[in-house]
Amino acid sequence: MRVAAIGVAHWHALYDAAYLRHLAAMPDVEVVGLHDPDGRVVARIITTQFQFVPSCIVLPANRPVTLRFASPDVIHGLLVTGTNVNTMVVPGYVAQVHTTFTGTGDLLMPCHEYCGLGHSQMVAQVKVVPASQFRPDAQGRVSCGQPG
Length: 148
What we know:
Blueprint: E1 3-6, E2 10-13, H1 17-24, E3 32-35, E4 41-48, E5 51-53, E6 56-60, E7 64-70, E8 76-79, E9 86-89, E10 93-101, E11 105-110, E12 123-129
Parallel strand pairs: 4-7, 6-12
Antiparallel strand pairs: 1-10, 2-10, 3-4, 4-5, 7-10, 8-9, 11-12
């Protein structure tokens, strides 16, 4: 799979570490699938030792997507396999990547910056589905377990 276009990563100070740790500790919190007013899909992902929250992200193919990453603890790096999505996540800032996925499928998103002893287990899944199967709920959220 190839990515048609990717924007430059932007850094924004946004969240403090205590707030991000609180969100990461809540397994039922969905932080993906929210929409900007212009129709762009926004995925918010927390990178924390040694997991991505959420660990599976559903995104539509052939639609503009913004990926926003934040970390409460240490520097993390990540990439989405088979694409040119690649960024570093620095505690106290938000890394933002703009992209469009041009194909569908399950992609891995590993942490590629050593972040401690559990680093090798830090992998998330990016599930790119046809735009017609991307069905957010009433709050604009999508779950990997949701039928497509």
